[in-house]
Design goal:
- The protein has 105 residues and is of the alpha+beta class.
- It has a domain at 27-67.
- Helices cover 35% and strands 14% of the residues.
- It is built from four helices and four strands.
- It has a two-stranded antiparallel ribbon with strand order 1-2.
- β3 and β4 form a beta hairpin.
- The N and C termini lie far apart (66 Å).
Amino acid sequence: MRERERVARLLAESERQLSDLVISSPLPILLVFPDSLTVAFLNQRAADLLGPSRSTAIGARLPDLIDLGEAGDRDVGPAARRPVPLRRIPYRTSGSLLRRPLARS
């Protein structure tokens, strides 16, 4: 049982450290439920950019916080989401393992 307690304590500490990093990140981090556009999480930097406090923004709909234009008006349910088509990008190698896109003319 001691080992299980030690692992649980290490996991809790790791989760706290990750949480501190995400919350204090200088980059805005915003997690939104795609079906409802409801804000699930945002860090302090994202809250500073959006305006409302973190506690006010969490649970709010993203269109109520920022102007999404037409994207906020359309149905965002599963039927409205389509996969992004993949495009092939031509690559070449030139004597090394580094790969670079071909120059476009």
